[in-house]
Amino acid sequence: MLKLFGHPFSSYCQKALIALYENEIDFELRMLEPDQPDNGAAFAALWPIGKFPLLQDGDEAVPESSIIIEYLQIHHPGPVRLIPDDPAASLETRRLDRFFDNHVATPQQKLVADAIRPEGLKDPAGVADAKAALAKAYSWLNTHMAGREWATGDAFSLADCAAAPHLFYAHHSQPIAPHFGHLLAYRQRLLARPSFARAVDEARPWRPYFPLGAIEAD
Question: Where would I find the GST N-terminal domain in this sequence (predicted)?
């Protein structure tokens, strides 16, 4: 059976979980928590880099959430095609996947990282830059989502697997302004998607640990 090393509260783990849930792929979640040291030891042996999620498929260890989703489509395909077969459409899907990882998740995680730094080591300039980057991303996405149901159009894809958790945490780090109606509506559609709704529910026990304030909405 496939094994996914990670944690339900991680946005990048949720990204991989969405893909697994979309196609109802059987797997075992190997939780990376201090009280489960055997999982941590197995993970470290498979991937010394130490970044999760990591998918184990027999002797194959597959890191990186986007690559995990690509791997699943090749080796464990299901009815939901998350990367289109058409080359141009697949390129657009990957482009938007990169947008959500680089321009939403990266600045959002900067805000979280700064929040857990001790006093005297905080980076106000970096926080200001991250907030400005998120504001630009929100504006671009609001325009992009006008007239679209999902990130690339009518079909749920790899890009939406990235968008769902990244926009979830981004909104709780720097709220999306009310006038970005297209983006807010898209975020609500993502929350209603059964695969992501399941991931959100599974992560609820860890919400009080969110360093920018306990997540109560959604």
Answer: 1-80
In tens, the pLDDT along 108-164 reads: 999 999 999 999 899 999 999 999 999 999 999 999 999 999 999 999 999 999 999
CA distances from 89 to 34, 76, 95, 150, 152 (A): 42, 21, 10, 13, 8
The CATH topology of domain 2-76 is Glutaredoxin (3.40.30)
- The distance from CA 26 to its chain's CA centroid, rounded to whole angstroms, is 20
pTM of the model: 0.96
In CATH, what number does 87-194 get?
1.20.1050.10
Largest CA distance in the chain: 52
Contact 206, 8 (CB under 8 A): yes
